[in-house]
Sequence to fold (546 residues):
Amino acid sequence: MLQQVVNGLTLGSSYALIALGYTMVYGVLRLINFAHGEIYMVGAFIGLTASQIAGLPFAAAMVIAMAGAAVVGVVVERIAYRPLRKAPRLAALISAIGMSIFLRNLALAVMGPQTRAFPIPFEVKQFTTGRLRISSFDVLILLTSVGLMLGLHFLVHKTKIGKAMRATAEDKETASLMGISVNRVIAFTFAIGSALAASAGVLIGMNFNAVDPSMGMMPGLKGFTAAVLGGVGSIPGAMLGGILLGMAEVMGVALLKSEWRDAIAFGILALVLLVKPSGILGRNLQEKV
Amino acid sequence: MPVLELREVSKSFGGITAVREVSLSVNPGDILGLIGPNGAGKTTLFNLVTGIYSPSSGEILLDGRNLAALQPHQITNSGLARTFQNIRIFGQMSVLENVMIGRHCRTRSGILGAILGMPGVKKEEKETRERCLELLDFVGLDVDPDEKASNLSYGQQRQLEIARALATDPELLLLDEPAAGMNLQETKEITSLIKRIRDAGKTILLIEHDMRMVMGTADRVAVLDHGTKIAEGSPKEVQRDPAVIKAYLGDEANVVA
Fold:
């Protein structure tokens, strides 16, 4: 049982990292960025390249993956969403789906369709106490996720750009009249969300020792589910939603069968949308970054 | 040189001309009142000046500089701030944070500095806090600075909006019906605040429905009707202007005079 809690936390924190990008972008643009799962995939590939081909250590590969994905996220916003800022929201949503398909196929063309191995570039130790088994990699996933989330919390609440993000999320026009460059804040939001997705991409890519062009789809949808569960637009909601979803999946699989994993996740999505579409922490006027 | 100058500014939306060839100038240290019946084009004019709309024709100069090519945030940076007819504070942020948001366009520290927690950034943030607390004091807002802004009363939110606008260090402050929805006492306080702001060296453009307030506050008054400026002058002159009486004051003229 305790083992399942650990597994759930590990899975859940990676969902949370992805969910944060959805929720932050939704906060400032009211847009579900359906290309977010592909940003996660691109991040994993950049991390793989940095680690395997350039032979960089884990931390450096991680930073490069996050920076690279941040650039991709900013470019996607610039070419696919900004021109549609004033168009009906459906147009931007369709553009997001188009961007998702484009990025996946771009990865197919550049990297090829085969799944690549992404071994963990350091030795993994196993800690065993009684029936509980934790690998040092599980610990790394948890620590990285928690660290990034704490960093994000600090950024949003204590810094100038964080205040600008919250102001922009509440009222773009008024924010611009306070001297805030809304375009820069939106670009920054995409950069941060994409970097978090990339960190999840690298961690999960290593965890499953697999990276491929279509790897972003399922985690993308799970991250989206987690964001909706926690209340889309709410940062604490995305963290909570990710953890809860991870727990629910792991517990469900333990009680039922592993084929039920995705059915459980999307069953939760359907249930939340039916019963409380605003999510757990997302009251309509909750903080929306 | 006037702080703000409008040269034959027009704005049409489709077939409707909301503002037609309006020329105005606001001199340093002045309070210019802008009045006119509902739908006269006052708010459109405000939105033109702040860059939310761009004029269909004509020029708007702030300190002699044409605003046409600037984004709203750049216009704020060049010394113009406003408040809103229907209050638009950031309700989910604290009182102090609201004011600090206004201040941020005047501070230098960048994103990287904040992430790395450089000492200069912390010092600047502390100075910003202090300056913003002073501003809250100046507008007479006596509440807990960490209170969520949406919990303030209506009158307090107006004061907060003014503090936030002042935090951008504007040369020209645009007030859009600051006394709307206020009782007599609150209106009095706002009037005295506006005068204090002027005495602190700011120039003010004031849109107002409350005639008594405009007449008692403004140095000069311009009157809009159907998008055109029909009169301009001292409050007394405007009050006597037959065109104004016809368009706007109507029977109220006696009450005001």
Summary: DSSP finds eleven helices and two strands in chain A. The first helix of chain A runs from residue 2 to 29. Confidence is low (pLDDT under 50) at residues 285-289 of chain A.
